[in-house]
Amino acid sequence: MKTFLKLLASIGLSSIILAFLLQAVFSGVPDQDRPSILAALQNTSLSLVFAYLLLYLLTLVVRAQRYQWLIALSGEKSVPTMRQMIVVTGVRNMVVDMLPARLGELGYVGMLNRGYGVKLENCISSLGLSIALDLIALFVLVLLVAIKQFAGPGVETWALAAVASAAVLSSVALFGLFFIMPKISTWLDARSFGSDSGKLGKWSNKVVFFISEFSTSLQTVRQSGKAMGLIAVSVAIRILKYTGFYLLFLAVAKPMFAELADLPVENVVSALIGGELSASLPVPSFMGFGVYEAGSALVFNIIGITDQAKALVTMLCVHIWSQLVEYILGGAFLAIFVLFNRSNRASGEKTSRFKSMTAKAVSAVLLVGGLSFLAVELYAAKKIGALSAPDVGEVASDAGEWQALSKQFLSSIDGFAVFSSNRDGNHDIFRLNFKDYTLVKVTDHAHTETYPRISPDGQRLVFSRSQQPWVSQRNSVAWDVYLLDLETGVEKIIDSNATAPHWVSDTEITYLKNATTVIKTNVDDLQQELIYQTGVGNRMPEGSFIQNPKYNPDTKQIVFTGRQNQIGINSGHWGTAITLGDDHRGLYNGCELGWTSDGKMLYQVTTGGRDNGKVDGGLKIVSVDPKSYESKTLIDLDGEFSHEYWPKDSSNGEYLIFGASRGSHDHEHDTKDYEIFLWKTGSDSSKATRLTFHTGNENWPDVYIAN
Question: Exposed, middle or buried: residue 700 (CB in 10 Å: 0-12, 13-18, 19+)?
């Protein structure tokens, strides 16, 4: 039972650690940085990661051998076997960064002492000596870097500073262990602390005895004559470790940031050392995330790397990959330790009922809490959207029979539609001319382009372009807004970290910036005006995210969609019409709220519509009175494509363009098979005309009808 409970507890702990790793990748990363990190992780060279894994395992074995050697030299009688030391070292590597200042190292002490019966003083002496030896090895490495520079163009200031710092750290460690500790032990032995009776006296005697034994253990190792051998092994450990990390650095940098991959080896290793030293500081963090990256970024800055964003992304990905390896292997070693360590095989040991109940309770809490935390993070990861672009798709099998009807209907309309489509490999903006039924690609870029909006005169287009080749539309930050002249093809950027542009006049647009702020900009002179910001002069929580805001220049009102977990309501989504100031009024359980072209009514996508043949199971498009908030169904398709989205009417209000997928199970805006439809306002819904016939993804359409 004891072994089973420990195993459950270890599963719970592993789940917690994995959840924190997911949080570091998804929830804990700013929206503008997440696409770069995900792209770097997806493009990482797996062959180099595998090479890192092999070097990691070799380093683990050598490190375990050194620990065993130090324990044996200390005079310990119960020296663990090599297999046991590998298990302890593997778990130690997992937990070392869990707490600041490397307090996770204490897990090594606990496993050796409680699991394999090694005396506490010998556990601590081997740990302290290994840290001191690591610092000496670090000094040797940075000294080699300085020597290499000296043989070349000259030693740089940062290299000299690193040599001096490593020399001081290693000297302090050795001085403390081999000079200060014996002095303390001698001083305590020469005095009588406590008494032979009473709890205080007994504890003080135990402390004095422990310090004496600890000092003796250190002196035994020092007098063994193995110092040079231990230093040589420690240098080998450091060389293996940083060789592996350098390969991992190349695995991330080569596919994404070639300029970083071409840096001299000593510069990269120096940044890796800087990150490791920073993670060792007593700064509150879990698994060193944030602190590690800050330390390495500082070194990169010192050596002259100007693009700090790329360096930060690379080092965060190196950290994630290394932690993933350490925690997968560490979790396996922890399970082995729980199942096979010596204390579990002890017989005849009685456990009190209280201890038994406490062990069960702790195991249950760790298991349930860990799995729950992991489930929450998996759900949060799913909510950030697709991690990669969807399949290109192909021409729909029913294209022939429908295209003839579509062409016939459109031939009498003087206008065109635009939409985003991935039919040519990635999302570009396409234009469908109605009269001659020609489809023209108006943008051609390696990054995702979406949200096209046609100017009132039909001459220009604004749209959003992602800052990485692929960014999910659930991310409302990692985009830039562009202006495109449809006649000349000339582009210009309007603003960064911006999306969801809308025209409010012939020369002005509004858009969402940083997912919290609505900006109005003149596209000719780029003069900006802040229209709305969540939490500033309104009842929205400060910093809460909103989506797809639309501004009414006549009434000065803004409408937008907000998710429940981002704006603090108790159900569904909230599409809300808000007056500038503190007047907020809500429309619940709907989204894609927007103004009609004349600014007098609202469109909204809401529940209660048909869903691929089922009644009242999907979405429909309604019109909403902005004063009374009374709604009226506009269109609710009955057929294969019945999940409506993105309603947008023409400037004269005569036509409504929108997208539709096959149902709620094909909901994701930028990955599922949406088709574009055009509907003459007020006609029978069965008269809605399908404009696209492709199994790829089409989204965010707009329509222009000539006056």
Answer: buried
Distance, CA of 400 to chain centre = 44
Within-domain flag for 9: yes
Query: Between vectors from CA 603 to CA 599 and to CA 605, what angle results, nearest 5°?
Result: 160
- Cα 292 to Cα 89, 97, 316, 363, 617: the distances in Å are 21, 10, 8, 31, 49
Beta carbons within 10 angstroms of residue 602's beta carbon: 23
pLDDT in tens, 356-375: 777 677 777 777 887 887 78
Q: Which domain holds residue 286?
A: 2-345+358-382
Q: pLDDT tens-digit profile of 24-74?
A: 767 667 888 888 888 888 899 999 999 999 999 999 999 999 999 999 988
Amino acid 421: pLDDT = 97
Give me the helices (H) in 397-529, please: 399-410
HSE of 622 in the Cβ direction (CA atoms, 13 Å)?
Answer: 21
Tell me, yes or no, whether 692 lies in a domain.
Answer: no
Q: CA torsion sign, 347 to 350 to 356 to 358?
A: negative
Q: What is the DSSP letter of 177?
A: I
Distance, in Å, from the CA atom of 56 to the CA atom of 49, rounded to the nearest integer, reads 10
Least confident of 117-126, 211-220, 360-369, 412-421: 211-220
- The whole-angstrom separation of Cα 623 and Cα 632 is 5
The C-alpha angle with vertex 334 and arms to 328 and 340, in degrees rounded to 5, equals 140
- Asked, for residue 137, whether it belongs to a domain, the answer is yes
Instruction: Report the SS3 class of residue 673.
Output: coil
What is residue 299's predicted lDDT score, i.e. its pLDDT? Answer: 80
What percentage of the chain reaches a pLDDT higher than 90?
39
- CB distance 641 to 623 below 8 Å: no
User: Distance (Å, rounded) from C-alpha 335 to C-alpha 339?
Assistant: 6
Average pLDDT, the chain: 83
d(CA 536, CA 556): 16
H or E element that contains 441: strand 438-441
Contact 31, 475 (CB under 8 A): yes
User: Any idea of the CA torsion for 646, 650, 656, 660, to the nearest 10 degrees?
Assistant: -30
Q: Give strand pairing partners of 520.
A: 510, 529
Maximum pairwise Cα distance, the chain:
107
Instruction: Kindly state the percentage of the chain with pLDDT values over 70.
Output: 82
Q: CB–CB of 402/691 below 8 Å?
A: no
- The total domain count for the chain is 1
**What Cα–Cα distance (Å) separates residue 7 from each residue in 21, 85, 96, 373, 492?**
21, 20, 20, 18, 59
State the pairing for strand pair 449-454/460-466: antiparallel
Q: Is residue 289 part of a domain?
A: yes
